[in-house]
Amino acid sequence: MPFKEISFGFQRWGFVFYICLLPQNQNHAKNFTILFLLTSSSGLIAQTINGPESVEYDVANNRYLVSNRSTPISIQSLVPGQSPTLFTSNVSSPAGLEILGNKLWVCDGGRIKSYNLSNGTLVNNINLSGTFLNGITSDGGHFLFVSDYSAKKIYRVNTNTNAFYTMVSNTVTSPNGMWYDGANSRLLFVNWGSNAPVKAISLADSAVTTVVTTTQTNCDGIGRDAAGNYYISSWTPQAVYKYNSSFGSPTSVVSSGISNPADIYYNTANDTIAVPNSNNNTVTFHSPFFRKKIISSANEKHRDIDIAIKFAVAH
User: Fold this and answer.
1) Are 165 and 156 in contact (CB under 8 A)?
2) Residue 234: exposed, middle, or buried by beta-carbon count in 10 A (0-12, 13-18, 19+)?
3) Which of 143, 153, 214, 240 could disulfide-link 148, Cβ–Cβ 3.0 to 4.6 Å?
4) Is the Cβ–Cβ distance between 186 and 203 less than 8 Å?
């Protein structure tokens, strides 16, 4: 009987493989041509981590979301150990990330934008007329708090109405990552510069105080574990430091395998700290004992790929 075309596809390693077997002679199938096409499972261009600035854990979808500030400028979806996939490319200069309800909120230049977590579509686009909106946190309800690194301001945003106001008009230092500390009625934010301070903003009257002056230079991100300990990333030294709830007894818990650690995320579900390394285009994940666990990077390679194709032909 005549040999007919056989085609099939499968997905592996974040790519879709399409294979088509074409007979060179319709009546004799011992000779055939194999057509092979490889595409990304999320589109024709494979996604990558490049210039990561912030990382946020999406509990509902069991993934991390990463802001890419270099090509492809985007928000990437990342499962540790797997290649990244595209969440959205509808951004221009993404920085801090915060999940609130079913939306991902993103600092994007002078605006904050929100995207539907299910499909990545743009929902909100609020112009704060900021200079470089960088850090973002929330009260878990409907208020966001946003730092403007260049203008040295802190904004408060009502996500129900899109109304906002300037909470602090001059932080003096350059504010970066933020944390909402509702139990103590304050916002915490880390700062750029030498002997970078950790500062607090009173939720009652917006007064700014210095909580601790660190010995680190250029602090970028801040997170907290379930026990109330804080974690702060710094560029000099290249490290993530752990502070107790009173911001005493700092110890370096991550100091290898990181490069310009940016806006970190502490995942309390599995006591893993995610570090976006802005200088070497990786996101590293560290275990409870803070050994490097998994690396997802732009240079991720898959070895020992063995694809066996079995088929039958009729004579």
Assistant:
1) yes
2) buried
3) 153
4) yes
Domain borders along the chain are 1-45+303-315, 52-297
Indicate the SS3 state at residue 276.
strand
- What are the Cα distances from residue 53, in Å, to 27, 94, 251, 306? 59, 8, 23, 35
193-226, pLDDT tens digit by residue?
A: 999 999 999 999 999 999 999 999 999 999 999 9
Do the Cβ atoms of 213 and 197 come closer than 8 Å? yes
**Distance between CA atoms of residues 304 and 84, nearest Å:** 20
Q: Which CATH architecture has domain 52-297?
A: 6 Propeller (2.120)
Per-residue pLDDT band for 71 (boundaries 50, 70, 90) equals: very high
Longest dimension (CA), the chain: 86
Q: Which residue type, as a one-letter code, is found at position 119?
A: N
The string of pLDDT tens digits covering residues 100-150 is 999 999 999 999 999 999 999 999 999 999 999 999 999 999 999 999 999
Of 53-57, 292-296, 311-315, the poorest mean pLDDT is in 311-315
Asked if residue 155 lies in contact with residue 167, where contact means CB atoms within 8 angstroms, the answer is yes
